[in-house]
Design a protein that fits this description.
7-stranded mixed beta sheet; alpha/beta; 9 strands; two-stranded antiparallel sheet; 410 residues
Length: 410
């Protein structure tokens, strides 16, 4: 902010430059010397990046596990004080930061947390997600597939794993803008109920259902899955939703077991951690993107599934597919940056740019993965055994393809 520069080489020789527009950027970092402090500086615009955010974040990942000594930290605080960067009280967080209130995972708090992320702007999401409006991992046959091709394929994969038949009652938990519900009704003849806590999503989903002429086959509700009482459903899908349940994931599996028809199928699709470290509650993601969300190890997810009585039948990790999906979204946001800022403001655009870039790098490194977990609903409080109709093979179905490799993603 005062014109000074520090770094290797001559001024202007570095392709990536971190710019402190205001000393408040240092105040954010000093008063919250963790991921959250840097995030506040970036989201507010006090810290900007000239260059490639992907290169800078990839380089930063090489510092995982590194920490400063106590002496280093004391010297940094002394320098910050000399520069006048320490303020008491500290500056307020940016407006885009979530401020959830109430009991964790109560119906009201979960509704507010979901609306914080999803009730931003339907037009903004369309700019990022493209015409399918699917906000979850696509399924690529090749890295050359378009995003629309890969997302449509993913919807088919889910329907086929669930062995959807005409007349099946399908419950779509976390139905988003209605893509899965519409696809299942239009192409597989299912009778679908989609539930979401997002008012904006529900409004657009209902419009899309009407545009498709499927009002008699698809119902979209603004409803918490815990309040659904008109089961049993022949099939259940939950795509990109169970991450929002956080520590309440056991209750989620208990509820899905209750809502499913005994012997029916449920597909649970969600992101899981692939390392053993516990997540910090003070991350950029939890404060700006998915408040109260939590990523579990897949073993923890499956343990909750089995405690509910659901029988595990198949797990497919689509990690490389999600890395490709996110690269498409980041590219879409970059191409529509001016329109995105006009639609949701500069803070929100910076949040999405940072979170989606960080996410595709995390998927490519293998820090996180996304799993499609297929299960059978229990029968009479006993573990169910899926009894297929005569002539149905139990071998892996032909739609399951070998996952594309990290080399192909690159």
């Amino acid at each position: 902010w005062d014109g000074s520069e520090i770094g290797p080489g001559e001024a202007g020789s570095c392709p990536d430059v971190i710019v402190l527009r205001d000393k408040r950027a240092m105040t954010y970092v000093v008063t919250r010397p963790d991921q959250l402090g840097v995030a506040r500086a970036f989201v507010s615009g006090d810290l900007e990046l000239e260059g490639s955010i992907e290169r800078v974040m990839a380089a930063g990942a090489a510092l995982y596990g590194f920490d400063f000594t106590i002496q280093d930290k004391l010297e940094a605080v002394k320098l910050a004080a000399t520069l006048g960067a320490i303020k008491i009280p500290p500056p307020k967080p940016p407006e885009a930061e979530a401020k959830p209130q109430g009991r964790l995972h109560s119906l009201r708090r979960d509704s507010e947390s979901i609306q914080h992320h999803y009730d931003v702007s339907n037009d903004f999401y369309r700019q990022i997600l493209g015409p399918t409006m699917v906000y979850s991992c696509a399924y690529f046959n090749s890295p050359d597939d378009t995003l629309e091709e890969a997302q449509t394929r993913k919807l088919d994969v889910v329907c086929q794993k669930l062995r959807l038949q005409p007349g099946d009652r399908l419950l779509d938990i976390g139905c988003g803008w209605g893509a899965m519900a519409i696809h299942a009704a239009e192409h597989y003849g299912a009778e679908v109920v989609g539930v979401t806590l997002s008012i904006a999503q529900a409004e657009r989903a209902r419009e899309r259902v009407t545009e498709a002429g499927l009002q008699d086959k698809v119902e979209i509700r603004i409803q918490d899955y815990r309040e659904v009482s008109d089961g049993p459903y022949d099939k259940i899908c939950s795509i990109g939703m169970f991450e929002h349940t956080g520590s309440d994931i056991d209750s989620y599996f208990t509820a899905t077991a209750r809502l499913g028809k005994p012997g029916g199928l449920a597909l649970h699709h969600g992101i899981c951690r692939q390392h053993s470290e516990e997540e910090s509650p003070n991350t950029f993601i939890t404060h700006y993107v998915f408040p109260d969300g939590e990523l579990h190890r897949v073993a923890r997810v499956i343990a909750g599934l089995e405690r509910s009585g659901q029988e595990l039948r198949d797990v497919e990790n689509l990690r490389e597919h999600y890395a490709l999906t996110l690269r498409h979204w980041v590219r879409n946001l970059a191409e529509n940056q001016t329109a995105a800022v006009a639609e949701v403001g500069a803070e929100r655009e910076r949040v999405w740019r940072l979170y989606m870039t960080a996410s595709f790098l995390a998927f490519e490194r293998g820090d996180i993965g996304v799993n499609q977990i297929l299960a059978v609903i229990p029968e009479n409080e006993q573990k169910a055994l899926y009894r297929p109709s005569p002539g149905i093979e139990l071998a892996r179905p032909n739609f399951v393809r070998e996952a594309i490799s990290v080399d192909q993603v690159g």
